[in-house]
Amino acid sequence: MSVLVHLRTSYFKRKERMNQSRIIIKGGKVVNEDCSAISDVYIENGHIIDVGSNLEIPAGVTVIDATDRLVIPGGIDTHTHMELAFMGTKAVDDFHTGTKAALAGGTTMIMDFVIPQRGVSLLEAFDWWKDTADPKVCCDYSLHVAVTWWSDKVKMEMETLAKEKGVNSFKMFMAYKDVFMLQDHELYAAFSQCKQIGAIAQVHAENGDLIVEGAKKMLSLGITGPEGHELCRPEEVEAEATQRAITIAHAVNCPLYVVHVMSKSAAKVVSSARREGRVVFGEPIAAGLGTDGTHCWHKDWAHAAKFIMGPPLRPDPSTPAFLMDLLANDDLSVTGTDHCTFSVCQKALGKDDFTKIPNGVNGVEDRMSVIWEKGVHSGKMDENRFVAVTSSNAAKIFNMYPQKGRIAKGSDADVVIWDPKATRRISAVTHHQAVDYNIFEGMECHGVPVVTISRGKVVYERGQLSAHPGQGRFIPRQPYAEFVYKRVQQRDQVGQPRPVIRIPYDGDVISTY
Ligand code: URP
Ligand code: ZN
Ligand code: ZN
Ligand code: ZN
């Protein structure tokens, strides 16, 4: 056979495979969060139909050999901001490029944020953001909604979102003063409403007042470069807000989810709260697990600016390994990326003033490999914990398990064939993210997604993407996730304070003025 004929044949074979709606994955090690077993996986029309050994191969199905590979649930990135308009510009990865990049990295679902401006209806913002995402997404997605202001209308709309729109998670900002930040009494009200409607409260935990004062101080000292960003909001600014959020959530017995846990101090606060029995979950992100804030002190301004995000990557270089230890041991629960990408020319809006550098880093394509490298290849976690922190726990917390986050009969066919021994070097030259750099540039990662299956279709295979905009679906989520609310409800039943029953006092009472 000539080379051309061979190339053509394999092209058509690949094309045929990519159009297939019936797939059997043979001989791989199926890894769930609780066990691993060599099994075949049969997929039809977007769902997993069967998992077992030596499954018969029906006629006409596409066969994928997964010998010596792992077959894992597709990754769920709990935290992205595709095409977010923020700090005077717009994130460069949109729902199309961002979800394509996700698939190339072994992530088959993203959870993005609706962030209404103050005064804007949450319902209108939700509809608008969903309409923006729907025609572009290449993988499934879901939406958290941010509560950036407080009123009776916001309260009512949260209920409608939970009952009718498939939203069971709301993010409250304790930073971005005068933009998104809520006061403590508003946090109390928002958390109470989350509890009332069976949602989980999420917090961006940083003390926004202290950040404003710290920034003024740094600028007055002549510190205008990227290092000023961390210097004005050191670890305790994050740890204090984290503790405050936990205290407020506990006061109303509302489950809490701390997004982007970036420092050792904040992680310790989450960890000790969990040990005291609080229903709180901490989400480290790929950036915080894979790199650190020392880059922000780099002499090259552009290099330093690429690493600016809030809360900041910490200059203590032992931070990523510490966060990974806590993630491995269930002190932290789940991973996202906070993927919110601004190219260098956008970061340059803050070339003379660090407070104007758009906050955000990449990660949606890199998360799975970074976590395998730093978590599993390093020996801190096993393959099952890897699955727990990259998909299953997210599916449980946000109430879409076992539809997502599990390889099992009846689950959605979002599946990744993972080669734990293969390596790849992360680079902006080869990545699929639209941003013009990569904060993990040059990192060699063991653990490579070789095939990604989304909604039962092969959408990525050995470097070739065949995903189409609009192919993904919005995944609605019901309130009262058992994984989160069972404990909360149990406490409500048995743990309410009760008055002491007494014989009424019938003695003298002095008269008041
Ligand atoms: O720097 C960040 N994190 N940008 C996105 C907005 C947010 O706070 O998550
Ligand atoms: Zn945030
Ligand atoms: Zn650097
Ligand atoms: Zn974010």
Task: Give a written overview of the molecule.
There is one protein chain. The chain has 513 residues and is α/β, with parallel strands linked by helices. It has 16 helices and 18 strands. Strand 11, helix 5 (184-197) and strand 12 form a beta-alpha-beta unit. Mean pLDDT is 96; it is low at 1-19. Bound molecules: N-(aminocarbonyl)-beta-alanine (URP) and zinc ion (ZN) (3 copies). One zinc ion binds at residues 204, 259-260. This is Amidohydrolase-related domain-containing protein. Belongs to the metallo-dependent hydrolases superfamily. Hydantoinase/dihydropyrimidinase family. Residues 70-459 form the Amidohydrolase-related domain. The modification N6-carboxylysine is found at residue 171.
